[in-house]
Specification:
GO terms for molecular function: 6-phosphogluconolactonase activity. This is 6-phosphogluconolactonase. It comes from Marinobacter vinifirmus. Pathway: Carbohydrate degradation; pentose phosphate pathway; D-ribulose 5-phosphate from D-glucose 6-phosphate (oxidative stage): step 2/3. This protein has 239 residues and is α/β, with parallel strands linked by helices. It has a single domain, classed as 3-Layer(aba) Sandwich (Rossmann fold), CATH 3.40.50. Helix content is 29%, strand content 19%. It has 7 helices and 10 strands. Strands 1-10-9-6-2-3-5 form a 7-stranded parallel beta sheet, with helices on both faces. It has a 3-stranded antiparallel beta sheet with strand order 4-8-7. Helix 1 packs across helix 2. The longest helix is centred in the N-terminal third of the chain and has 21 residues. The structure holds the ligand O=C1O[C@H](COP(=O)(O)O)[C@@H](O)[C@H](O)[C@H]1O. The ligand O=C1O[C@H](COP(=O)(O)O)[C@@H](O)[C@H](O)[C@H]1O binds next to loops.
Length: 239
């Protein structure tokens, strides 16, 4: 097994696997264990997942885990403002790969409201998310090679607001010029405060990006992922 020789900050754990499937399986087991632990205490558990191409095998494995899915509230860390069914829709990705089988019973909170702009929808999304108890139980983040995570993009004019540790809202509209679509994203305090916080990466390029991020840990404006490389984070990687 490839070991992690990156200079990780103290308290950050690395889980490196040889294959995509092994990595997805390990992450799915750990997420399911963590959700079961929260559910044993009674009440509901919350799960936030990311979109993109990396998490598909993780979604499919997680959907097969035995747990009280009907007591899990799930949402995405971010969404592109496109209709469901669009190839860029993270909601569609999740419906096709995670909200299946046992996991069909999940209460899914969609960040996408139909028939209006993201700005117009913001109050309704905030209202929907108000039912979530903070801290969230499980958050699984991804990362782009520009150092973004969720839709916290380095070139988004709204980045300072979304990254503020006192951000008043749980969600922000993001309009990064580098991206084809307007996005909505959960804010840094909501994501970073999770009880179980994981970063799921695939490929040597992502490892190089992580290495770059670790070089200047405080400069999150250049690479927003840096704000999450803190004690408690668990990094899951495969080639
Ligand atoms: O745009 C996004 O990209 C990242 C990473 O995506 P990947 O395709 O490289 O796995 C993802 O974490 C984020 O949720 C998504 O909206």
């Amino acid at each position: 097994m490839k070991t992690c020789d990156l200079p990780l900050p103290e308290g950050v754990q690395a889980f490196f696997s040889e294959t995509t499937q092994e990595c997805a399986g390990q992450l799915a087991l750990h997420v399911a264990e963590s959700l079961r632990g929260r559910l044993r205490r009674g009440g509901r558990a919350s799960l936030v997942v990311s979109g993109g191409s990396t998490p598909v095998p993780f979604f499919q494995t997680l959907a097969q885990q035995e747990l009280a899915w009907a007591r899990v509230t799930m949402l995405l860390a971010d969404e592109r403002w496109v209709p469901e069914g669009d190839p860029a829709s993270n909601t569609t990705l999740v419906r096709q790969n995670l909200l299946q089988g046992r996991a069909k019973e999940v209460r899914f909170l969609s960040l996408r409201q139909p028939l209006c702009s993201a700005e117009q929808a913001l109050p309704a999304i905030e209202q929907l998310l108000a039912e979530l108890k903070l801290p969230l139980d499980v958050v699984v983040l991804g990362m782009g090679n520009d150092g973004h995570t969720a839709s916290l993009f380095p070139d988004a004019p709204q980045l300072p607001e979304a990254m503020s540790i006192q951000a008043p809202g749980r969600v922000c509209v993001m309009t990064p010029p580098s991206q084809a679509h307007t996005r909505v994203t959960l804010t840094r305090p909501v994501l970073a405060g999770a009880r179980f916080l994981a970063l799921h990466l695939r490929g040597e390029d992502k490892l190089e990006t992580l290495e770059r991020a670790l070089k200047a840990p405080d400069d999150w404006r250049e690479m927003p992922i840096r704000a999450f490389l803190k004690p408690g984070l668990r990094i899951y990687w495969s080639p």
